């Protein structure tokens, strides 16, 4: 079994819900980036000890939240020592729009993982893109690089689309399974 951590920022609670479902699928610990863009020393140590790290952030203005960016910038000390070299990585994002430039956010997360010398795990699930497909279907937003999730702007935290939460659990499990296979 591998040790997986989900590190995320959530501005309004929607991304937290997605993070919890990813963590459920991966049987992972969650690390919440604070409203000030900080995590504790113990959480940094847990990330260093993890076999896999899953990044999560809302998409704000076409990219990661500033709190996640502050966290990402703080990983430069780890990058310098190659501390996360060969770890398994994945990532997810959430926004109000079906697209909302989420792909840019995922590419930012994938680039961060690649800069650390990590192994990125794609979603590994075909899109639900038939005429009959609904927001209750897995991968209804058609992601492939990582997990895309949607929470309508006027919805509470219970408004994250059902299909996205199903996809989140699948993705978490996929990352944990791949990390376990690579650990052997």
Automatic annotation (TrEMBL):
PROSITE patterns: FLAVODOXIN, FLAVODOXIN_LIKE
Keyword Flavoprotein: yes
InterPro entries (alphabetical): Flavodoxin/NO_synth (IPR008254), Flavodoxin_CS (IPR001226), Flavoprotein-like_sf (IPR029039), FMN_Rdtase-like_dom (IPR005025)
Cofactor: FMN
Keywords: Flavoprotein, FMN
Domain annotation Flavodoxin-like: ranges: 4-146
PANTHER family referenced in this protein's UniProt entry, alphabetically: FLAVODOXIN-RELATED PROTEIN WRBA-RELATED, FLAVOPROTEIN-LIKE PROTEIN YCP4-RELATED
Entry protein name: FMN reductase
High-level lineage: Bacteria, Pseudomonadati, Pseudomonadota, Alphaproteobacteria, Acetobacterales
């Amino acid at each position: 079994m591998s040790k997986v951590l989900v590190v995320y920022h959530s501005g309004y609670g929607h991304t937290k819900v997605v993070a919890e479902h990813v963590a459920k699928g991966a049987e992972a610990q969650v690390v919440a980036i604070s409203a000030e863009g900080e995590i504790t020393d113990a959480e940094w140590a847990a990330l260093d000890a993890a076999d896999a790290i899953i990044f999560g952030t809302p998409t704000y203005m076409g990219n990661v939240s500033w709190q996640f960016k502050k966290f990402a910038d703080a990983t430069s000390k780890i990058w310098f020592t190659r501390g996360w070299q060969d770890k398994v990585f994945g990532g997810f994002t959430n926004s109000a729009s079906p697209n909302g430039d989420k792909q840019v956010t995922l590419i930012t997360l994938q680039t961060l993982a690649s800069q650390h010398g990590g192994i990125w795990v794609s979603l590994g699930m075909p899109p639900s893109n038939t005429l009959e497909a609904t927001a209750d279907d897995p991968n209804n937003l058609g992601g492939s690089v990582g997990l895309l999730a949607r929470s309508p702007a006027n919805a509470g935290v219970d408004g994250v689309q059902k299909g996205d939460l199903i996809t989140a659990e699948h993705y978490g499990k996929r990352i944990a399974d791949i990390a376990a296979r690579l650990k052997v």
